Amino acid sequence: MRQVLNPSAGPGAGAAAVLTGLGTWLPPHRVTNGDLCDRLDTSDEWIRERIGIVERRRADPAVSTGDMAVEAASRAMASAGVAHVDAVLLATTTPDHRCPATAPWVAHRLGLGPVAAFDVTAGCSGFLHAGAVAAGLLAAGTARRVLVVGAETMSAVIDPDDRATAPIFGDGAGAAVLEAGPRRLDGALGPVVWGSDGSLADAIVVPAGGTRERHRRPVSPGDVYVRMRGNEVFRHAVRRMTRAARDAAAAAGWELSEVDRLIAHQANHRINAAVADALGIPRGDAPSNIHEVGNTAAASLPLLLADAADRGDLKPGHKVLLVAFGSGLAWAATTLVWPSGLSPRR
Amino acid sequence: MTFEQVKDILTTAGGLPAVPITPEASLPDAGVDSMALVVLSLQLEDRLGLEISEDDLAAAACVRELAELVDRRAEARA
To answer: What is the ipTM score, two decimals?
Structure first.
């Protein structure tokens, strides 16, 4: 087992995080808008036109976030052609347990031995947050190769009777292998621009289950579900993603007019249209898969990257601007040039 | 702001179908939901520097009143 802990020991010091593998896994069960409308006061037409979602996947109750993470991660490692990583970072808001973190179990199931493994909680921007942490580990030489996973069982925290959230969220997992390499290499992550606003912690919240609400016993049944103030979230999502994306492009030395593809967290197609408009990026240059998978929170970006790459919508040499936003509130953005020879495994 | 300008924001930035958006249509009849009002609010801020919340916009009885509300706020600021 190679554990590089001394920056001077390896050539990783100062290195960039280079994307070398991508894998995804979606539960096979599809839930259509029609399936939901039997129970909710909404319509297929409204969900389709106003949010952009046609169907989403739902994990079997016997399948956990960790299970899906293992599936996506093993595919990402196969995509990269690697059998080992030095660390596993799992971005999720729906871990298998409150304690312990899910990542060590994922690493164990992947047969990785005693590697460093921990969860990253940053809502829908968790995948980019975990990517930023991985980039730091690679730059410092702490690790040479990191597995970054985004996996969510959002169906576990959705109130099936809440029409504001039930149609939106879906389950799934995506993973990336990041390796230390030269900054000029295609696939190298650019500077990460990120931030948070805890004054709006209650804009997207699962009230019960943590330490904040434990004085209220018993908790009301609805408090175990995610609650979202949709309009407020919409407004902040547009503003924060626009600014972060603009700043990340500038930090990479790119003009926005050079951006070939905007890869934005799939929360709502109207949010992304507003962000693309504000950035002056044609809406057609912002690939989307929300119609097929819904909002998969931390799994959203790797699922979209794999989908767009498979459809030929991401081509080698494309300048890609990535941005995400979610509970916290937290947001992040970065850049990369899409590498050649990367085949996502799905 | 004219009715046509409001309609233009709602259909281009907001992505709403144009046909139901008539001056006298109520916001629900015009297809103007709360997210469309957020988009309108953001656009008013970007284009005119006017801060009008979606709750204030939602109080308009019809699309024509949305345009009148924008004018009133713009005049109040001037």
So the answer is: 0.92
